[in-house]
Fold this sequence. Notes:
The protein has about 280 residues and is α/β, with parallel strands linked by helices. It has a single domain, classed as Alpha-Beta Barrel (TIM Barrel). It is about 50% helix and about 20% strand. An eight-stranded parallel β-sheet has the order 8-5-4-3-2-1-11-10, with helices on both faces. A three-stranded mixed β-sheet has the order 7-6-9, with no helix packed on it.
Amino acid sequence: MGLVSSQGLLSQAQREGYAVAGFAAYNLETVRTLLETADALKAPVLVQTTGGTIDYVGLPYLAAIVGMVAQTVSIPVALHLDHGDSLDRVRDALSHGYTSIMVDGSKMAYEDNVAFVRAAVGMAHARGVPVEAELGRIGGVEDELQVADAEATLIDPDQAADFVARTGCDFLAPAIGTAHGMYRGVPHLDFDRLDQVREKVSVPLVLHGGSGLPDKLVVSAVKHGMAKINIASELKEAYGEALRAHLIAHPAENDPRRYFLPAAAAYRAVVEAKIRLAGAANKA
Length: 284
């Protein structure tokens, strides 16, 4: 089918009460595994790439890989910049065909965040590409992004309405108690706060910190209005553990065409489980 904008994917999810899953991918093996699994489940999906992944793979190569594999499946696929930290990053992603942008100015003062997101929205909308932004500070670690627990702050619902109106962002990732990376304890999500945000803004909402979140909390988040869930660290853990176990069990193995297979299978299992949990199967 090829790449599509994430706007229609999230708008449909919001209307119909499920969530589209956005998954981190890092190379040809993970991109193929992700899109082939989603295709088998007839689920729309976002391939999400952070600045760290882009710098590692190279933007032209990464965009080409995702675009090529997207042509081989029948589901709608969006290529998403995750946690874009500069307008240069946004500009580069757009110039290489990204169809979804997320910019993260949550570490900035509020007015600076508004100005940053508004500038990114202007660049992206000129190419017909939607923009996701974060408000409040979501704790945890993802690639080069680190937010200590003491620095994490929950979203102010009234400020959320002002932020969306002034920036023109298309999707909003509200801080409601989730964290990037894997959880060190039992997370406590503020669904009352989420309900207030949902009442005050009309744009689709995005759940960051979906890795390791108990299933019942993911389901509840979707019921309370999250139209997209992000999964990254849980994929890396499954992939790495399976690869490590295979090489320990087969110390003489030296063929990447073989030792990547169990890692891909573990990655596939997480993708399938999260798509089903979000209610996105058969929504393509």
